[in-house]
Design a protein that fits this description.
The chain has 282 residues and is of the alpha/beta class. The protein has nine helices and ten strands. The protein has helices at residues 13-22, 45-58, 78-98, 115-132, 154-163, 176-181, 189-203, 237-245, 267-274, and strands at residues 2-6, 27-30, 63-66, 102-105, 137-141, 170-175, 208-213, 215-216, 227-228, 253-256. It has an eight-stranded parallel beta barrel with strand order 1-2-3-4-5-6-7-10, surrounded by six helices. It has a two-stranded antiparallel ribbon with strand order 8-9.
Length: 282
């Protein structure tokens, strides 16, 4: 697995690559803008070229962009929904400029519109983002199931992909904490294998294009999204041991988003996952 972490772009996009290298990452996730504001940044060709060059020089694996937290593609408010669709399309265009591999987004909450309407509206925004961009893969992330949000059942992710056209650029990002909080069994290697076999059965093999590797502070089925350090939460180490060694994920970015202390880096978390990798004997 291409284990990596979410790194800051403070100082320029290229600085995220430098931080990822220092943390021992083989992949990296970034924001392309402040995640809690609507204003869209101007990314110059010079900015993008410096990032692309830094990535190439470092031999950095897949680059994942996480979309703004404000994006709610199925909001019951038409104006918010329109802003979200425009923002997702803008994110996709920036990904193309940076030559990022994947754009991950949360499908959001339809409120009283209901799940079916939320799924259809989200798929509509995904289709628009695909049309607005050239090459970036767009990945729907599973959620913990808080409130009236959609995406906490894998069947919902499958429906979004189907309604968005089912093309090769579409896939999912599975967050381990979210899956566990949503009620899926994920406390042993056998449960991890069964979970991803089930996802492949619903979506088809190869739709899991990225993973968020996070332990969970709250119990299974809590529907509460609270990340914990790897092996320090309710999930435990064994599922992560299976994930990082699974052949199906050999080239998949596994991104750590665990709650490190202020001023610390993800080096220890990346190392903890690397220590679980089985080394072949010679």
């Amino acid at each position: 697995m291409r284990v990596g972490a979410h790194e800051s772009i403070q100082g320029g996009f290229h600085r995220a690559v430098e931080r990822a290298v220092a943390d021992g990452c083989a992949s990296v996730q970034i924001f392309t803008k402040a995640p809690q504001i609507w204003r869209e940044p101007v990314v110059t060709e010079a900015d993008a070229e410096r990032f692309r060059s830094s990535r190439k020089a470092a031999g950095m694996g897949p680059v994942v962009v996480h979309a703004s937290y404000l994006i709610n593609t199925c909001s019951a408010s038409p104006s918010t929904r329109a802003k979200a669709a425009a923002a997702l399309a803008a994110e996709a265009r920036r990904c193309d400029l940076l030559e990022a591999d994947f754009l991950v987004f949360h499908p959001g909450s339809p409120g009283d519109l209901g799940d079916d309407a939320g799924i259809a509206l989200t798929a509509e925004s995904v289709r628009a983002a695909l049309e607005a961009s050239r090459s970036v893969g767009i990945l729907v992330e599973n959620t913990a199931g808080q409130g009236k949000g959609i995406g906490w059942r894998f069947e919902q992710l499958a429906s979004i992909i189907e309604l968005a056209g089912g093309g090769d650029r579409l896939g999912v990002c599975i967050d381990t904490c979210h899956a566990f909080a949503a009620g899926y069994a994920l406390s042993s290697a056998a449960e991890a294998a069964a979970l991803f076999d089930g996802i492949d059965g619903l979506l088809g093999p190869g739709r899991v294009r990225a993973l968020h590797l996070n332990d969970a502070r709250s119990g299974r089925g809590s529907r509460v999204d609270r990340h914990a350090l790897i092996g320090k939460g309710e999930i435990g180490l064994e599922p992560f041991r299976w994930i990082v060694n699974a052949a199906r994920f050999a080239d998949v970015p596994g991104i750590v988003e665990t709650p490190i202390a202020k001023g610390e880096t993800y080096a220890a978390e990346v190392a903890a996952l690397a220590a679980l990798v089985k080394r072949s004997s010679r």
